[in-house]
Every structure is written in C-alpha cells, then in structure tokens.
Amino acid sequence: MTQVDAETQAQPAAKLTLLTLTTMVVGSMVGAGVFSLPSRFAQETGVAGALIAWAVAGTGMLMLAFVFQRLAISRPDLDAGVYAYAKAGFGEYLGFFSAFGYWASACVGNVTYWVLIMSTIGAIAPALGDGDTVLAIVLSSVGLWSFFFLIRRGVKEAAAINRIVTVAKIAPILVFIILALFYLNPHVFAENFGGADYAGSLFQQVKGTMLATVFVFLGVEGASVYSRHAKRREDVGRATVLGFLSVFAVFASVTIVSYGIMPLGEIAELRQPSMAGVLEHAVGTWGQVFVSVGLIVSVLGAYLAWTLMSAEVLFVAAKDEDMPRFLGRSTSADVPVPALLMTTLLTQVVLVVTLFSDDAFNFALDLTSALTLIPFLLAAAFAVKIARGRLGGDLVIASLATVYTAFLLYAAGLKFILVSFIIYAPATALFVMARREQGRRLFSPRELVILAVSIAGAILGIVALAVGWISL
After folding, report:
1. What is the dihedral of CA 318, 447, 85, 414, to 10 degrees?
2. What backbone phi and psi angles, to 5 degrees, belong to 3?
3. Three-class SS of residue 115?
4. CA–CA separation, 36 vs 43, rounded Å?
5. Nearest to residue 118, comparing CAs of 109, 128, 108, 110?
6. How many Cβ atoms are within 10 Å of 391's Cβ, its own excluded?
7. CA distances (Å), 137 to each of 58, 356, 426, in order?
8. DSSP character for 272?
9. Spatial contact of 363 and 351, defined as CB atoms under 8 Å apart
C-alpha cells in the first residue's frame, strides 16, 4: 500500500519527482498482502491455476495501470485520480461513491494489517489467536489510536518510520524468494501442479484467486491519488507503469516458489503470515522469525502510509465540494484531522466486526478488494468514454481494463457485493450533507435511481446476513 514520503507531505510546496512517485507506487503495492499469498493461493489452486491467475491478473492490472497513465496525461485537470475520473465521467453521485468506496477499502485494508500483526505475534502468544480474539482486537485498537495521535501531531514525525519500512518491506520478500528457489524440491513442485481435489476445475481455481490478486495490486493507482503534488503530470503515468512492472514479478515469484517447498494441503493450512511458515519449513525457525519481524515493521509503516492516503481522498473530495466541508479542514502541519478521524473510526468499526467473522483476515482482505472494484470499474469505463469514437490503442486498453474489472466483480461473488452495498448505502448521508451546505437539490432523477439501487442492495445484504444466506 502507498508508501508516502512523509517529509514531502509535510511540505506541500515541494513537488514529487518521477523517482519519488515510482517509490510511492512500489511501496503501495508491496504491502501486507504479499506475506499471505502462499496459503491464500494454496487454498484455491495449484501451480497451473496460479500461473494462469497471475497471467490474467497481471495483464488486467497492467491495462489498468496504462489507463491511469493515459488519463494522467490526457486529463491533467483531474486530481485525486480514481475519484476524479468517476466524477468527470458519470456525475457527482457516482463520483462520490467512488471516493467513498476507495476510502472505505483503504480503511478495511488497514484492518488486515492489525489482524496480520496480531496473528504473527499469536504464534508465541496463543491468546491472540489468528488476530481475531477479544484481546487481539483490544491491542489492535490501542495501536490504531496511537497512530491517530502520531499523525495528528504532523506527518513529519513519521518520516523516520517510513525510511525504515522501505527496507524492512522488501528485504524479507527477496530473501524468501532466493532461499525458496535454493530449497525448491522439483518432486513437490510437480505434485502441486494440478491442484488439490478441493480446488475444483481450473476455471474455479483461477476465479477463486482473483480477489487476492486485487488486494496485493492495490496501490497501482497510488501516484494518481497524489497527482496534485506531481512535478510533471507525465511522471504520474510513468511512475504507475514502472511501479507495477517492478513488483509484478515479485508477487508471482512468492506464490510459485512456495509450491516447491511444501505439499499444497500443508501450505493451505499455514497460519498467517504464511510466508513465514513456508520459510520455516525450508530453513528452520530463524526463517519464520526473520519474516515475522520484517512483516511487523513493514505493516506498521504501511498502515501509516495508507492512513495518510485515505485521509487525502476525503480531504480532496471535500475541497471539491463532494463531501461535507468539515472534511476539508487541515492543521498548520497539513494534517486533515477530521478526515483522519473518520478513517480511524471506520477502521475501528471493522476491527470489531472481525470478531464475528469465521476468518477475519480473509474476510477483510476480500472486502477490501470488493470495495475497490467499483472505483476501478468507473475509472476504466471513463477511459473508454473519452477514447470512444477514435480507434486505437487507448480504446483497446481501456476496453480490456473494463472487461477485466467487470470479471473481478463476478469473481467477488454475491456475498461481497451485498456487504459492499451495506457499506455504500449509508454513506449517502455525507452526500446529502454536502448538497445541503451548497443549497442545491439533493438528487437528480438519475441520482434517485442510483440511490434506490444502493438502498435495495443494502437491504438485501442485511436480510441475507440475518437469515444466513451469507455470512461474514
């Protein structure tokens, strides 16, 4: 998730260079999700399915990266990327939903960080379980609010943490890949090629991994979120593509090399972070400790960075009068405290909800991905809209990105779409507040249709949860 240069953020007059923007995207994408990939993939697919899944996800996300690249150049007037594109293409209400959904996905993503930290410590402190016990939630909440007060003082204080995190995040992953290649057992790899009996058909295997790939690719849009700080608009697009290509091979490698260390069923049963369990099997206890320490430092820094970006989305939307004005306030240290408080509160609520989930980490991971799909789909569809009427590469890329994102919605399944509606629908209260502050009509006829769909989806989701059609 986005690794923001905190010192630059503390000095709004400074402009972000191509190198800084690329670093932000790389830091964005190399987050907590990569540490969970071995078991998450092993639960769904074997080597063959994983190779196809990465090919599909890599191609689709590359198309999205190209979309953000081209939009950054063709529409330099639009800041805050994902949110601004939805608004320009499909109106203020869908633009609002895009901003809110993107912000909410970041908040839910932050929950995965705390669950993963507690699960990691839970290996030596059983009372923390898999990060979903009452004690784990209490300790996570303490950490959550500690970060709120740290950032509230001014992000400059967080610069030292960010510098440490950059190394701590990458080093364990690269060491894992190198050691796993050295200890790779060709016989085990071959046994894992077709997948286990529980995995289903090859199509089902690929479909089952799609939300996991979305989660680890979150952050590909990171440079566009901070586009208003870029030294040159062209650098936003270049950083997006360079960052994506830099880390794609890392993600795929972490998954594929794991299949050569342990049988599929054993990888699937590993506690999170499963990368630590795989390395422990290969080299012994020190491998688990090495990955676990690196993960904790990495995740704490990633949490800081994503909290900053979440607040930025609300802040920019408020400045554009698409959110209530109070969310557009900031301190002399350039900290949008009301937006930061909202971010912390939603993260806290979702943390508590994980107590009622059968699998807290995977629930939060999948919900994060599902909430992001609407903003991504609207951005891709906007690219199709502005490329329509002129045949060429832009239209092909935008169309492929749109089809890919629509497939992700299908892969997410009804459960996460309905839960997303439950989160989206009440957010309309913020839209109403903003319209009233401006003395404007609350909804146009078209917006009333969108409102009705969102409310109907939320009601259906609540009923589905109440009667047991779906579960957390």
Report:
1. 110
2. -95, 90
3. helix
4. 11
5. 128
6. 9
7. 34, 12, 25
8. S
9. no
* Tokens read off for 221: 């849009």
pLDDT of the chain, 472 residues: tens digit per residue: 333 333 334 334 456 666 655 565 565 555 666 777 888 888 888 888 888 888 888 888 888 878 877 777 777 777 655 778 888 888 888 888 888 888 888 888 888 888 888 888 887 888 888 888 899 899 999 989 988 888 887 654 444 455 556 666 777 888 888 888 888 888 988 888 876 666 667 777 787 777 777 777 776 655 555 555 556 656 666 666 777 777 787 888 888 889 888 888 888 888 878 888 888 888 888 888 888 877 777 777 677 777 877 887 888 888 888 888 888 888 777 778 898 999 999 999 988 888 888 777 778 777 887 888 888 888 888 988 888 766 677 888 888 989 888 888 887 777 878 888 888 888 889 988 988 988 888 888 888 998 898 899 889 988 888 887 777 6
Residues 6 or more apart in contact with residue 248 via CB below 8 angstroms: 58, 61, 62
Distance CA(225)–CA(233), nearest Å, equals: 12
Tokens 């047991």 belong to residue: 468
Are the beta carbons of 272 and 204 closer than 8 angstroms?
no
Residue with token string 């996991």: 212
